[in-house]
Amino acid sequence: MSAPNFINLYNKYRLASFIGVDDWADRLSYFYSFVIYLTCTMLVTSKTYLFRPIACHMPTAPEGANFKNYVESACWVLGTVPIRSNESMPQQPQSWEELEKSRRLSEFIEFYLGFLMWLFNFRQQ
Prior knowledge:
mainly alpha, 5 helices
């Protein structure tokens, strides 16, 4: 089969016209995804920056004027490990390591959500 025959066959069936690459369902999905990511970003950002959700507690704390700020900054950088109210505090380093592997939270999730929101918005244009 030569190239002109192949092109004529392609033009005869026009299969590309049957494929809806960006139909109304896709545009609706982009819009709803954008709205969902925007809502999650706003909720997480407001909770993170307005309501101070990180509570880093230490059983013994050295005296100092800025020690609490230092501990909160360390929690922001290193991440946190949530412990439920019905769980006891781990006493062994191995227990802490297991919790860090399974429950590590990143405090930068709002930036991830914002980036995803930007990608969906960028895709529509």
